[in-house]
Structures are given as C-alpha cells and as structure tokens.
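Our example copied in:
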Amino acid sequence: MFNHTSTAHAPRSIIPADHQWFRRLAVATTIHPKLKEMIEQQN
C-alpha cells in the first residue's frame, strides 16, 4: 500500500513515533531539503 501512494510528486516517508525527540528529528531531516529548495527558488 505504501509503495502505491508514494510518488515523485508526493513522496511519503515512514516516521517512527516511539520517541518524540526522534520523531521530531526525523521529520525535520526529511523536510529540510525541500524547504531549503523552496526558499532558494523565491530569492
């Protein structure tokens, strides 16, 4: 199911939620490159 919903346009990541600190780190690490790219495109 996961492989069928993750596309190049809308990639998906599995983030473990066992530990709150690790979940936050994993989310930040996952979205940081895209946010950086979006900011650079605006400038």
Notes: The chain has two helices and no strands.
